[in-house]
From TrEMBL:
Superkingdom as given in the UniProt entry: Bacteria
Protein name: DUF2314 domain-containing protein
Domain DUF2314 as annotated: residue spans: 47-167
UniProt organism field: Gimesia panareensis
Signal sequence, start to end: 1-19
This protein's UniProt keywords: Signal
Amino acid sequence: MRVSFICALSLLALCALNAGCDNQQPRSGEMVEREGEPAITYVESDDPKMLAAIDKARKTFAEFQTVFEKAGPEQSYFSVKLLIKEGEHQEHVWTTPVRFEADEYYGTLDNEPYQIKKYVVGDEVHSPVDQISDWMYVADGKLVGGYTLRVVRDSLTKEQQEAFDLNLPFKIE
């Protein structure tokens, strides 16, 4: 199985993570364009940098939850990436936080799924907190968290990074 990262410029100009590739066999690092949707950059599912980013996001999620629940005016663009499934397809998608109930996270889908058709932008989805894929928010104009987003950005050439950064409403340091 391959994992792909979709650089999406939806409301938040974020990146979503998709698993599976509709019988396509792109190489790792290859970009695939989609009409009316963000391009997809494929990364192997066992990529150590991506796995480390997801692990870090899970280990630090309490930080996100604390800031989200007590957000001040200098914090914005709160988003959580989580896994959705339909049949054999799985996608990691960005959501806007709605609420936490016990050990479950509920969010509103921010990106149009690539292969999952049972969900559309605006649907509420949920996941156990310990299974989230990433989290992020912006504090004073700078990205906090966004570990998978950083991995995707770091894989780009310097010129691609500069173009990528121009479309973001925050700075990545």
